[in-house]
Structures are given as structure tokens and as C-alpha cells.
Write a structure and sequence with these properties.
It is a single chain. The chain is mainly alpha-helical. Strands 1-2 form a two-stranded antiparallel ribbon. A hairpin with a 2-residue loop joins strand 1 and strand 2. Helix 18 runs parallel beside helix 20. The longest helix has 50 residues. The chain starts with a helix and ends in a 17-residue tail after the last helix. 51% of the residues are buried.
Length: 644
Amino acid sequence: MNITFLEIVIVALFLSILFYGVYLGKRYLQSVADFLSAGRSAGRYMITVSQGMAAIGAITIVGQWEMNYVAGFCLRWWEFFMAVVLLIITVTGWVIYRFRQTRALTVAQFLEMRYSRNFRIFAGILAFVSGLLNFGIFPAVSARFIIYYCGLPLSVNILGIDISTFPLVMIGFLSISLYFVFAGGQISIIITEFIQGVLSNLTFLAIIAFCLIIVSWNQIFEAVSTVPENASLINPYKTSEVPDFNFWYFLINVVGVIYGKMSWQGSQGFYSSAKSAHEAKMGEVLGNLRDIPKWLFLVFIPVIAFTILHHVNFQSVTDNVNQTLSTINNEAVRNQLRVPLVLSEILPVYLRGALLAVMIMATIGTHSSYMHSWGSIFIQDVLMPFRKKSFAPEQHLKMLRYAILGVCIFIFLFSLVFPMTEYIFLYFAITAAIFVGGSGAVIIGGLYWKRGTTAAAWCALIIGSITAVTGIILQQIYPNFPINGQYFWAIAMGLSSLTYILVSLLGKKNEFNMDKMLHRGKYAIKEETIIVNEVPLKGWRMLGIGKEFTKGDKIIYIISYVWTFIWVAVFIVGTILNFVNDVPDSAWMTFWRYYVLINLIVSFMIIVWFSIGGLKDFKDMLNRLKNMVRDHHDDGTVRSDFKN
């Protein structure tokens, strides 16, 4: 065990701040809508920072390190182009704006509005199963990080019995996560995730700055030059021999970002927590800037780890890391722990403690958010549709907590027994595809196409699920099956989309009442439309800035456009140069050096900006929760006929 007293103090300090946030949030929990969606009271900065943190648990950080240790800077290059796709999605409010207009508390509630109750039940069950399998490895990966990063013993003797440390660590952070959810539901989750977001980003920048001091760019260049010519970590046009995480992995992700918007329900509570559709849309736009510190940390740190493990100047660190890795028989687990072990060796004690605190907070936060989501989905979208009578509010809250407890127990047991055999992100892709493979077509078609039919929704979701399950079975039978989880996801998306379109066109030509579902025209709700003074722009004009924008909104849009297109221009120029000439690796190294330095400066500015905006939103959120009149019928039950 190599954890020091100072590290324990730092962890305790960070966690105490979170517990205070839970204390503030639990006082305002008065209804089911509060528990599920924070009373629809959150502003753009609270939404974007909190949701961003919910998506970056310890398992996500470890998974990104694992991937970028193999891919280096190269995947980030292709993501410059994807930035255009993300910008278009966010500034148009793609999917999120229309979903918020429906006032549904969960995606499956919307599916009942748009299709049928039976389809809602089926989709809810499928999303729940997919989510549980995906979520099942979270505790295991997080626990292994904590054990090996802290150098904890693999077992402890309690009353003369040797007990594995692994389940004890899982029980520890799962218990805290469970308390956070039980205490304040989505209110507590938003507050604690916001606190985590601010503290985590500051820690990320501090670690990056330290690594730039102890590792020179010349050392990085010398280390990355040791890889095969077509498995480059710095030249994205020489990656044909990079396994799994190459150009095709990126391209499928681009399609998946568009197709799967809001399909994945791991943090679904955030989808309906904004105080208006406009705030939800602006939170999405801010998300383009929010992720700059995070992505810099997730890409740069694995490159530093690779350098240390492949440069002669750090031989003593390499020996210590390899000695620990040699005690682990599972190759997939060794891949997960390589970067954390390097950081454990090189960071000074205060940064080690800060990183440990961030990883524990990220573990607790993501587990809280996911347990809340999957437990809520089970009650709202699997159990409730079978009932003829709604739950009483107190009974409803009790059932939600029971379901969340059940999810917690399942993921604990699953993590104990499941043998991890592949990269984290490939496992994510194929388990998520059980639902996401078909749900994208169903959600997009339901929100944007009045001709989409219930029969088409059934067929698309079934086809996507069968494709993903087939992939899982084949990979368990044949461990080296040539089609990985990412490719199965792509196949599922393609087949489901084609099925939805064909079945809708060949079926009955009924047109769905979109205005009623989206509360437009004569169905508009005054309290929510007063914030947005005109109907959202349509067609190509959606990319512009309309009358509903305040001066601050306009500035945010302009900054997002400028930042995105600067890097798109860099991508275009770089691509042309690489087609015309053979750009040397030294030039690529210079480019990545300036990229890191520029993003480091911008990251600091973003942290200050979003922290100030988030604190203002936090004050407004508590004021809204304190003064709003609760509607206890607002519990996710569909009481109106949204069809003609």
C-alpha cells in the first residue's frame, strides 16, 4: 500500500464538498418529477457541466487511456472533422430540442406518445437489458484502478479469514453512490456532478502542466518514433496497421453521433432536466467547448505514458510498472492499468491525491447517474405501463429507490464474475447496440417524420437488437472473431434505418399529429414558450441566429463556430499537404506541440467561464425548486392521446 496521509486528506476534502452538495439538494426533493428530472429547473451551464461529468466516469477515463495509448494523437485529428458534425447537431438542437418539447420524462415515455404502450414496454425492457449489460463492468474497472493505483493489498485478513479487496472496494463506492441517489435523485446528481466537473478540470490541467515539465517534446518524439511506420501515434495518415482504433472506428463514431443522439439512456435524467427547450439546446452548444479540457487530458496523458514506457531515460519507472503488470494474467486488465500505473509512479503526492480524488468522484458520480437512469427506466418504462392505476407520489419514489437498489446489486454481482476479454470501448459499442442499434431510427423518425409508423418502429428495434446479440454470441464463441463490436454497431444502424423507412412507406399512410406531441401552435405551453419568443428556425436557417437569441446566446454561437472552423481549416490544409507531399513526423510533432499548448490555455479560460455561469445557474435552480408549485400528476404517465 503506497497511499499517503496527504492523499487521504485530499480525497476526504473533495468528498466532503460532494456530501454538502447532496445535503443542499435533498431539501428540495418534493415530487417524482424532482427525483427524475430535477423539477425541470436546470440552466445551461449546470446541464452541460454536469452531463459532461456524468459521461466521464473512471471507466471512461481508463477506457480512453487504453484506446489512446494505442492510437496516440491520431484519432484526435479525425475528430477535427467530426467537430463540424457535432456543431451542426448542437446548434440545431438535433433531437434534444424536440424531445424537450414533448415534456416526456424518459425516452420510452415519448415512444408511447409517438407509437404505442406495448412498444414503450418492449423498448423499455430492451434499453434496460442493454444498459445493465453495458453498466455491469463499471464497478470492476473502477475498483481495479483504485486498488492498483493506491497499491492496496489484493486481500485483507478479517477475523482470520482472507477476503479479496476487490469486492470491498466496490461495496465502498457503490454505497456512497446509492446514498447520493436516494437522498436527492436527479437534483443531487446535477449538483454533485457540477462540483465534480469544476474540480476535475482543474486537476486535469495541473497534471498536464506537470507532465510537460518532466517529459520533453524531444523525448516524446523519440519514443513515438519507435513504433512501426504504419502504426503511427502522431501521423494520422500512417495508421493502417493500428488495430481496432483506426479511421474506420472514427467514421462509425461520426455516424453514431448523428444516429444515436439521445438513444443511450445512461444519463437520461439530464435530457429532461433543463428549464426550457432553449436552455437544453444552449447546453448542447456549450458542450462543444466544455469538453476541451477533458479531451486534452484523455489524449495527451496516454502519449506521456507511452513515452515513459518506451524511453531509456525512464527505465526505473518502466521496470516498476512492468513488474506490477506481470502479476496480472488477464491481458485486457493489463491494458486498462498500464497508464494509471505510470501516473502512480511519476506524479508528486499532491497530484496523486488530487487524481485519486477525481477518479473516486468520477466513479461515484457516474454510478449515481447510471443507477438513477436504469432504475428509473425499469419503473417508468417497464413496470408502470402494466399498471392501470398510477402510484401515489410517496409509493412511486419508494419503488424508484427499490429499482435503483436492484441495479446496484446486479452490477456488483456482474462485475464479480464477468471475464473481461476485450477493450472497454469495443465492449461498450456492442452491448449498447442491443438498444441503440435500432433506437436511433425509431427516435429520429418519431420526432421528425409524421409518416413513421408503429410497425416500422417494432421492426427496426428488433432488427437492431438481433444484430447486436448475434455479435455478442459470435465473439464469446470465437474470441478472435474478425468483426469487432464497433462494426456490429454499424451493421445494426444500417439495417434498422433501412427497415424503418421501408416498413413506414409500405404501411398505412396515416399522418401523426406532431403539433400536439411537440406542444406547438394551439397546443403550446405559455410558461415554456415565453423564454423563446418565436418558433424555432427551419431548414438551413436553423444554422443561423434568430430573434429568440439573447446577446449572450449569440456570443456563445459565434465562439462555437469560430473554434470549430479553425480546427476544420487546419484539418483541410493538413489533409491537402499530406496528399501533395510526404509530411515528415517532425512536422507532425511540432503541430501536436502547439495543439496541446493552445488547448491548455483555452481550457483554463473555459473552466473560469463555465464555473461562473454554473454558480449563477445553481442559485437560480435552488430558487426555482424552492418556489415552484409541484404537479404530482407529472410522473411520466401518458394521460393524453397524442394520436389523431
